[in-house]
Amino acid sequence: MFKRLRGIFAEPGVLYHPSCFHRNMRVEENYKIILNLLGISHVATEEEKFVKCGYPLLDAGYEVEFIKLARKNLEYLKQKNINKIICSCPECYKVLSQDYRKLLPDFDIKVEFISSAILGVLRKKPRKIKSIPDREESLIVYHDPCYLSRYTEIYQEPLELLNILGFRVVNPKYHGEDSMCCGAGGLLKETDRELADEIAKKRLSQLAERGVRQITSMCSICAEHLAENSRETELEIVDISELLAKALKIRLPEDETEEKSDRELEKEVQELDELDGDYSNLSDQKNQYKKL
Which residues pair with 143 in a beta bridge? Predict the structure, then answer.
């Protein structure tokens, strides 16, 4: 019991940051429980009121406003003695590990993707895995997220994680550095939904070519977008956090909702408004944000 609660009562030092613009509450809760069970000490984002990483601003071309937000974040992290951030969102991981370092010369906080943190435990303690899939269910296709693969060159960790969990990974024709985008990244889903869906359907056809029904990804944005576009197929899109929870025999809380409350969304939009700068051109983007 103590080990399972250790992460909850951990001293500040390691912050778990799930995502910001695209936030899947179910996946976030999955990872909190997984981190606690594996004894990975951390404090949760909402407990520390960490301001969003700001990648929508950067993607939209608002570099000055992004730097202001990043500076505000760094000051807060220093104040709370945070020396490492664990990310489960590839986009946030890319921004925090690369763009913050590029634009903030004094940013010296370690940033780790969640697959690395989890593998660090499971490599040493494989007995933590309580359940493995049977032979028929063990076949799976892995989709490489753009921000995790081409941007940050994390290709092997997700595959190793799946192998440790007992899965036999079948590579699609286009994978690794040659993988195709799911269509949801770079704010495309918010700015051109029709094109984003068209790309997703093309990617699904590639993933289905190997005849394997089960598809997973380390990115909840990819998994969610592919799932939305697979409703007329027999494909099963599963977020890797759910596979982890099943392997660790974690009883997950009931999925009350995967969407944020209106109050949460309004609060996050307000956080952007509180930054100094002209956001008049972001009104359409904010409206899309509220509709998620």
Answer: 217
Tens of pLDDT, residue by residue over 9-24, are 455 599 999 887 666 7
Q: Specify the CATH number for 131-247; select among 3.40.50.720, 3.40.50.1860, 3.40.50.970, 3.40.50.300.
A: 3.40.50.1860
d(CA 290, CA 246): 32
Per-residue pLDDT tens digits for 174-191: 999 999 999 998 889 989
Distance of CA 273 to the CA centre of its chain: 24
CA gap 175, 210 in Å, rounded: 12
pTM over 0.85: no
The full length of the chain comes to 292
